[in-house]
Amino acid sequence: MWAPGSNKSKRHLDQGGPISSETRINERIRVPEVRLVGPNGEQVGIVRIEDALRLAQEADLDLVEVAPQARPPVAKLMDFGKFKYESAQKARESRRNQQLTVIKEQKLRPKIDQHDYETKKGHVSRFLAQGNKVKVTIMFRGREQSRPELGFRLLQKLADDVSELGFIESSPKQDGRNMIMVLAPHKKAKAKAAKEAENA
């Protein structure tokens, strides 16, 4: 547990290579003094690096540099192995949440018949229930372009029909021959989808 810097980081220093973005711990912290924070977050004050290392050794903890840009740098007494594990868990969790936000697309025509509309609405409902955003595109052809209100009304109707599952994140707007609206799932739908993904 009480290991000085690795040969790899020493090699970088000797060759004047890129500065390692890795957190410096224990003997790798090469400054005369640090602002020391205790294991429970209590402020110890500015202490010489030798004293900080001795305190860490006595407590069977690591001295970890948490704010290298500060003057003097801030170092905390902690179990570095546990800290790295918890950081990795948080990073994994945030990656998982990012991956859950997928934008699905559904295309409609302004003069869609009721059966087709119900089918498309079913797809949109399913996507929202899974925690995904849905980009709904109305495609106008020929003279239909002179009747944008048809597309607007259809998008509004769809948003109302799926309002229990999602809300309008981006209002309907004309984009060339198309009209586009983005629906986003309610937070509880995303949370439910995340839970189901974890259990899968």
UniProtKB/TrEMBL annotation:
Keywords in alphabetical order: Cytoplasm, Initiation factor, Protein biosynthesis
Record InterPro entries: T_IF-3_C_sf, T_IF-3_N_sf, Translation_initiation_fac3_CS, Translation_initiation_fac_3, Translation_initiation_fac_3_C, Translation_initiation_fac_3_N
GO molecular function: translation initiation factor activity
Record domain Translation initiation factor 3 N-terminal: where: 25-93
Transmembrane segments: none
Chief place where the protein resides: cytoplasm
Localization: Cytoplasm
Protein's name according to its UniProt entry: Translation initiation factor IF-3
Organism: Prauserella oleivorans
